[in-house]
Design a protein that fits this description.
This protein is an alpha/beta fold. It contains 9 helices and 16 strands. The relative contact order is 0.21.
């Protein structure tokens, strides 16, 4: 007759079996990671294209067509980080401040909002909250913000008085040996921090950034690529509202790049009414997206994460399709 095992031996065996099961489950989960791609589709008229089915979409990852395993069109609540650039010109900042009531009105009751301001540094004015009255109070306090005296205006005639090699000088004063402080505008740092903070929000919410800025960046600790990597790994989309910009600046603006690469959108309104309409466009676009899911057919990397480019096509003719540029596939 076999001798009964000591209780300590049975306990150790149970712990080892549980540990092996947990490791195996983690490995299985890692190998079947679902890639989620929110997609905005606009028709030829610029409006949202509704009524499309799963069969209308083709998803390619790194050039390989993927089998769409999940498809949803259900509107979902938002977690939104609002980034207000207070380093823009005084006229532009006044226009933005007057649009704050419309900004709050663009959100539904169940949406949660956090407000940030940035110029030489990034400051979070309120944590994420669905108490929109509290957010309104924060924005009212922000109304007292004024642009820095070092803010660089953006037009061809923005520098008063004579200049030498682009540096303003005072007539009659010798400028030899004088230096000018380098401008500071931490746009990339603001985007990076917002993406990082949004990563803690519920995954069942659509995570977005509404970025109101002139698009200038000087001396950020983070680069554009670093901030974009954080957006993509945290599943965050950027909706940019460009103010105080010239046509040439818009063509090369990081505002448009952030929006395009993260799957959001960008607008460059010239009036307060235009700014106000951009808020509702941002929330409507973010809330009403087609959400595609697939299991990648590409071999998982063995070392560091690998960036996988994503392309989404639809059968709708002359459609404007917006989605994130790709994702980082983990080992």
């Amino acid at each position: 007759m076999p001798r009964p095992r000591h209780p300590a031996v049975r306990t150790l065996a149970f712990v080892l079996l549980s540990l092996c099961a947990a490791v195996l489950a983690a490995q299985i989960r890692s190998r079947v990671e679902l890639v989620v791609v929110p997609v905005t589709v606009k028709g030829p008229d610029g409006g949202l294209a509704t009524g499309l089915t799963k069969d209308a979409f083709i998803v390619k990852e790194a050039g390989k067509t993927q089998a769409i395993t999940s498809f949803s069109i259900d509107p979902i609540p938002l977690s939104a980080a609002i980034l207000i650039d207070t380093g823009i010109s005084e006229a532009a900042l006044t226009r933005v401040k007057s649009s704050f009531p419309a900004l709050i009105g663009a959100f539904a009751d169940e949406d949660e909002i956090a407000v940030y301001r940035f110029e030489k540094s990034v400051e979070r004015l309120t944590d994420f909250t669905a108490d929109h009255a509290r957010v309104s109070t924060v924005l009212e306090n922000l109304n007292r913000a004024t642009p820095s005296s070092s803010t660089m205006a953006s037009g061809p005639f923005s520098t008063p008085g004579p200049v030498i090699n682009g540096v303003p000088v005072i007539p009659g004063v010798q400028s030899a040996g004088r230096t000018t402080a380098a401008p500071t505008k931490v746009l990339h740092d603001a985007v990076f921090q917002a993406a990082e903070d949004l990563s803690a929000r519920d995954i069942d919410r659509r995570r977005i950034v509404i970025l109101v800025s002139d698009g200038q960046n000087h001396n950020s600790l983070h680069s554009y690529d670093t901030a974009l990597e954080r957006l993509l790994t945290r599943e965050v989309q950027v909706f940019s509202v460009g103010v105080d910009t010239t046509v040439f600046q818009r063509l090369r603006s990081p505002l448009a790049s952030y929006a395009k690469d993260s799957g959001g959108d960008a607008w460059f309104p010239d009036s307060r009414e235009g700014v106000e309409s951009c808020y509702s466009l941002s929330t409507d676009n973010a809330r009403n997206q087609y959400v595609l899911g697939y299991l990648s057919s590409n071999k998982r990397p063995t070392g560091r994460p690998v960036f996988r480019e994503i392309k989404v096509q639809v059968s709708l003719k002359n459609a404007d399709v917006r989605h994130k540029r790709g994702y980082y596939q983990a080992p």
